[in-house]
Batch of 2 targets.
Target 1
Amino acid sequence: MVKVTVCIGSSCHLKGSRQIVEELQYLINKNNLGDYVDLGGTFCMGKCGSDGVSVTVDGDYYALKPENVMDFFSDVIVKKIPQ
Amino acid sequence: MNDKKTLRKFDTKVQYLQYKVLREVARNAFNDTLLEKVTDIPKTIIPGNTPTMRCCVYKERAIIAERVKLAMGGNRSNPNVIEVIEIACDDCPAGGYEVTNACRGCLAHRCEDVCKRNAITFDHQQKAHIDKSLCVECGQCAKVCPYSAIVSRRRPCENSCKVKAISVNENKAASINNEKCIACGACVYQCPFGAMIDKSFILDVIDMIKKSDGNRAYKMYAVVAPSIASQFTYAKLGQVVTAIKELGFFNVVEAALGADMVAYKEAEELVEKGFLTSSCCPAFVDYIRKQYPELEQHISTNLSPAATIAKYIKSTSAPCKVVFIGPCTAKKMEFQRPEVRPYIDSVITFEELQALFDAKGVDIEHLREGVLDNASYYGRIFARSGGLTDAVAQALKEQNTQGFEFNPVACDGIEACRIALAKAAKGVLPNNFIEGMACVNGCIGGAGCLTHGEKNKTEVDAYGREALEKSIGDAISVLNLPSSDKA
């Protein structure tokens, strides 16, 4: 199980966390990965200054922009799923 | 501290005095000097020998000492959060309608004609007198007197208490009946002598901040009520958010996001049950429980917006502590209820927040602007009367509810609530939804507000329009996520 946490605090919300959450939910469902990816939210990761929405994948931190979600999904999240 | 500048932040000098007490208590608590300095606070606030408020500085200091006790949590054996400082009560006249010496002894005697109880008599100079054994205090005589010579001598506290919880005790001081009191705080705001005060939990909050060890031991979350938009108007809202973080909070979240969640669920519940009252205002809910227990089954089962969002924060961001900051004294009762206690750790008012800022020397006007954006327009307008109704109407629209006619009544103030509830109890209320707000104008009229102005409603609406999310569904879509602490 890959644990993905998206920050939904004010700062990230304004940078597009809703779009990111919706797109990740869509991609997880489309690829039938619901049993492999645990998507969650949290209020603030303390990195409000970053250039993008704060996201962690199994504890690793990323600053993600809404337009890069698709690549992020295939390059980072899917690769962490045990084959 | 420039006192004149600070005074401008408050409606009355009573609030300002109360603020100074809270500030001194908080300052000492932050500095770990409260234990040694607590008995010095009255003299710090009332220096010198010249009294400015009461008969002598000794009485003034004695009253301040009582205020200090309340700022430190008050009488723990009294479950009510509203208390009377007996020595501060001025024993105002409470005789009801009286004829003053403005009576000119006219010929018309309108007062006599209008009095259905024949309580008005005249002396040999034709001056009116009221027979108190017959008078029922209807006030008709006062209305018709062309000289306004008849006045009502009612205590401001009793006058403000629409649930009739205040009476005069054997010492002529005001006394609160806890069986009736809904902790709305109307008396706190109205008493011109500052004798009715809400207990403060600022020491609990300061203690939580300290023990969080800079948010390392656990994170401190502030949930702020949307009425904050009408407060702290000397600074930008973003600066207030930064100031709250400067106090030691990890993050600030809008209670309005909880309001979005509540509106959505309340709309579903209303369609299912057919008749509902709101559950957002703790004083209104308490009023139903105390005065109309037969209607309790119709109260929405939702937690209040603050408790709803606090529950979500606790489920996603543990370990953490949640402090609600708002305009409301009744919230100080609500968070102690068993169904809310696990989610909200403490409650303070805007008045108390201002005291904390100044105790810590936070220079709000020169801070950078933080951001506060979680909720939709609809969640934010919960702060004013009618907003909740608008939000539920919007939620019904977003849910595409077919064949359900929404027929709400928005009750502005506890008196309006009483009228709607009395009708509902008799089965003659034509509406299927009661929005109950104990304070007139809604939360922006709350006793814990720094200022109560004409512009407050406009400011809340403007703040609502600034929200990034325009619909309730969009605002709450991110919350459908499972908790990040699972798995």
Target 2
Amino acid sequence: MIRLSAHEMASALEAGETTSEKLTQEHLDRISSVDADVHAFLYVDTEGALAQARGVDAARKNGEKVGPLAGVPLALKDVMVQKGVPTTAGSKILEGWRPPYDATVVKKLKDAGIVILGKTNMDEFAMGSSTENSAYGPTHNPWDLSRIPGGSGGGSSASLAAFEAPLAIGTDTGGSIRQPAAVTGTVGVKPTYGGVSRYGLIAFSSSLDQAGPCARTVLDAALLHEVIAGHDTHDATSIDAPVPQVVKAARDGNVKGMKIGVVKELNGDGYQAGVRSRFEESLELLAKAGAEIVEVSCPNFEYALAAYYLIAPSECSSNLARFDAMRYGIRVGDENGASAESVMNLTREVGFGREVKRRIILGTYALSSGYYDAYYGSAQKVRTLIMNDFTKAFETADVLVSPTCPTTAFKIGEKANDPLAMYLNDIATIPVNMAGIGGMSVPCGLAPEDGLPVGFQIMAPAMQDQRMYSVGAALEASLLTEWGAPLLSRIPALGGAK
Amino acid sequence: MSTLSRADVANLARLARIEMTDQELEDLSTEMDVILTAVARVQEVATSDVKPTSHPLPLRNVVRADVVTPSLTPEAALSGAPANEEQRFRVPQILGEEA
């Protein structure tokens, strides 16, 4: 049962072939047997999940109308607050904290009858591309346990690839949904900025952060997308417009007559050979499916990474000021009449990890008087140039595509001491966040040289998220015909697996 | 580009309210040099004719009617506090003893 898609699980529940309680228990058993090796979860909410599952079963038995994913389990990234359930955002500073309220996304999941299994591991405050920056130890890629599962949402992507959950929630500030999806052979979607409420999402970079669905199939991602999306009065940046029809697009998977633009600047030098060959093959399949492939140029994308590493740290240095040891989280050094300032300094020294401190310092510098125009101000101008590049490219193409990441999953520890090398992982995903548009990563095969998954990125204009699902579903269907079975059927068995 | 001395990093850490060890200050000043050199590339294209963008959406103020809606109880609001007293957050002294 655990290897089915979420959609298939939902059908089995609907047909009365199983119950949510049984399905949830199967996933909890799977977590018990493999998570010591994978470490996708920071907290497993056994009792809460089973209680929720029994509630859905009872509702179904009573003939109540339930949602299309009711009773299906999900893994929640630990950056989303869930009432009464430990939430750390991968940071020591929030160790032991139990939020007093539910994020809007969490409320929508609960209302839809989706069973929340637990909280998944992540780079501290979502800052990183490998999950190595978690204060609670790294997550391991189920394809090869010595490798990273991507980041910051490595726990969510690994839980899907390890069949610990069929659905997960991620958040994407510079690629934290799409890059983990790419390196684990799963599907990850960053919706249009403002498409999903940020209320209850612990903020890293408010103008870039966006929550989205993670799954093993494009249709599953679409079903979850429609559950969590929509206007929310608790988030002033939430878009008050109908949710794009992503489920319909995922079911149709129609790309006939669609113009697909290959971004010249997001390919070539610096991209692994196997990543490039899988990407090229996918383009051929899409052309066969009836799409027209064109080349587009976005010359300012080469400055996106530099601009991102000024904007994101600047916003983070401001957002993370809330961790002041006064209202929640840990408090260090509150003794012998110590001052509030001294307690703050000591708490933040102990509570924050190395990458978080690095970014706070960088952001503090970029925003300081005398340097503001040269750094933060210039980065904001680059943001305009990137948006202009997208606008122009979308005049000739309906969607844009590229490899999701320049390489497949690297070894744990390989880039841990080289922040710039680590930042390069996000080179193809960052432009999407800068412009606030939608982006999706779909698995497109294994790189021949290392046998590891490669991701295919699809980008669509703001609030045209359905276009990504059309292309993603078309590619997924074509590849399935080629392969005869989903990519994840080729993943090695995990130790202790049944 | 400007390089950051250890003293500069110490000042930034003070502004950001993070106590740092000597080793951390040392490491960060080296790392900041490398990172700042890389990110300074934005200046190559950030010419005076380009308008800055702070946010992907056209921002406007969002208001709602001033009506009382359910919110957290004092107990719930204080539930995560490191210390509380008489339904309030208890914080270390902010002003000196003599103030």
